[in-house]
Design brief:
The complex is a heterodimer of chains A (146) and B (148). Chain A is built from no helices and 9 strands. Chain A is mainly β. Chain A starts with 15 loop residues before the first strand and ends with a strand. By secondary structure, chain B is mainly beta. Classes of the chains: A mainly beta (146), B mainly beta (148).
């Protein structure tokens, strides 16, 4: 049988998938830090890439635990490299009121479609709020193959 | 409509997907144990713990997030087993340091992975190369694989 490994991904163009990043402890992230890149400016060890070109279309966040944490804004960022300045393509405001974000529910980010090439780096950071009480979150991204 | 269930998977060849394994407690694994296979060595045929992909895939990348740091530096190792009882082949490693400069507790760190093909019944493994189980930490794991 022929090797379809290069041909078949073409037919996946536009196919949607989801990926879940569990248990992101923002309380441990400094205000200027990034939960996918870390707070280090040099010799970064942590980063997530998609390994092929995809377009992130939607994102959901779930606050883990019942404790109401400090209000903050979470931002999804796109970085062209580990050390490049990120561009914001998604935001979500975490409220301290029950009506703003119930614990354990999946709430939707406001996302603008963003293309990630194979080596582009995903980032998520708090825009406002105290990192010391920022809480713990699960993040789910929806993306489509490009 | 015709049944495409046998035909359609052919068109997924080479297509990437990801799978997340959350909250892996290496502290609960003995030094010789395997977090996907369990620690049982005797009467191994009754081992309840096993993960297979159920079809042929090629694991290409892996990312680790440290939830709880280990008390001492250690190596995490990804393994491929042809069966539950077979000796494993190492396909990926990541050194976990206890210093902040290498592993922070919320970042996803890529493992060094050599592409490994898993047939439908072959078994995934994750073990410690070094370090003590009692303070081995807790991790989340994302695997990237492509359909073969």
């Amino acid at each position: 049988m022929s090797d379809f490994s290069e041909l078949c991904p073409i037919f996946q163009t536009g196919v949607l998938k989801e990926i879940t990043f569990p248990y992101i402890p923002f309380s441990a992230v400094t205000a200027c830090g990034n939960a996918f890149l870390g707070t280090l400016t040099f010799s970064k060890a942590g980063y997530f890439t998609f390994g092929r070109t995809v377009v992130v279309t939607e994102a959901y966040v779930r606050r883990v635990g019942a404790t109401v944490e400090g209000a903050l804004i979470l931002q999804l960022n796109h970085h062209t490299s580990e050390t490049a300045v990120g561009s914001v393509f998604g935001t979500f405001t975490v409220s301290t009121t029950g009506s703003g974000m119930d614990a354990l529910t999946w709430a939707k980010f406001a996302v603008s479609d963003k293309t990630f090439t194979s080596s582009d780096v995903l980032g998520i950071s708090p825009l406002t709020g105290s990192a010391g009480s920022a809480g713990v979150y699960d993040i789910m991204l929806r993306y489509k193959e490009a | 409509m015709s049944d495409f269930s046998e035909l359609c998977p052919l068109f997924d060849t080479g297509v990437f997907q990801e799978i997340t394994f959350p909250d892996i407690r290496m502290t609960g694994v003995t030094a010789c144990g395997n977090v996907f296979l369990g620690t049982l060595t005797a009467a191994a045929a009754t081992k309840p713990g096993i993960f297979t992909f159920g079809r042929t895939v090629i694991v290409t990348d892996a990312f680790i997030k440290t939830r709880t740091k280990p008390t001492a530096a250690m190596n995490l190792k990804l393994y491929h087993f042809t069966s539950q009882l077979a000796a494993g082949t190492e396909i990926g490693t990541l050194a976990i340091s206890i210093t902040a400069s290498t592993v922070e507790i919320y970042t996803w760190v890529p493992m060094t992975v050599t592409d490994a093909t898993f047939t439908s019944s072959e078994v995934l493994g994750l073990t410690m190369g070094t370090g003590t189980a009692s303070g081995a930490g807790t991790y989340d794991l994302i695997l990237r694989y492509k359909e073969a």
